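Ticket #4471: structure export looks truncated?
Reporter: QA, pipeline team
Priority: medium

Steps to reproduce: submit the single chain below to the structure queue and open the exported record.
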Amino acid sequence: MDAMRLVNTRGWRRDPFSSKTVHELLGLRTDLREARYDAVLDMQGSIRSAVVSRMTGCGRVTGQNSPREAPARWFYSERIETRSEHVIDQGFELASAVAGDLLPATAPMLPVDEEAEKWCEEFLKAGGDEPIILVNPGAGWGAKRWPASRYSAVANELAAMGFRVLINAGPGEDGLAREVAGCASAKVSVVQCGLAKLIALVRRAALMIAGDTGPLHLACALGKPVVGIYGPTDPARNGPYRIPEGGACVVLRSPQIRRDHRRLETPEAGLLTIEPPHVIDAAQSLLAENYNHDL
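Actual output as written to the record:
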């Protein structure tokens, strides 16, 4: 049975002792146990993901021997000593341990949604025939978020080169996306869409520019060139993952930055050492290498 179960851990953390939280936890536990899983694999390595894994009642819960949050290891019945640095390669090591065989890294097979593909064709046709560049200014927390004014400067420069620049607005990021596009040219606009439509857009993009966030990794999975703007998260562990036959990537990060996963609200100081010309130079280099366009 293929199923996706949404877990409201943020809500539980805000109000852990409410009747609503208790009801949701008990309901999740019941649903997970009814599935009767043969094996559970925790690739997140956090305490909350380890707890949810244990709630399944499965006798085989597998995770890293040295997970991202150390106490999580005590919830695992099987602890694997991973040797890879990147989280995706670590995931392959864990999955290989469960499968009992070596699972090589392969390009993911992302779905093709016919309705989303049709929407994308019409959306792009209505805006002209310029090649598109996707920019994603959002991030999971403020310390990873490059300033909107700098994204806007990059978008303006790329638009002046003849590209159509789309600012992706993720959930709750409408204001941020509008801030980036509001200071830019007419060839820069906000696009807000669900995952299926975003996949369709990325398939047609010449380049993605973003921080350490989902759309950047989606572009990598689709083999697109990316410019990653990194702050406190370590690109050796969480950076763009180049799939076989995938596009090239450039990661911009100050060498003085140390890895830090604290959910701080203000941009990390080292992140602010990256200026718009650095991003524009990286974008031009990738576009010249991977896209036939007169720069």
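Status: closed, not a bug. The export was complete when the record was re-opened. Leaving a note from the reviewer for reference: The chain has two domains: 9-99, 114-290.
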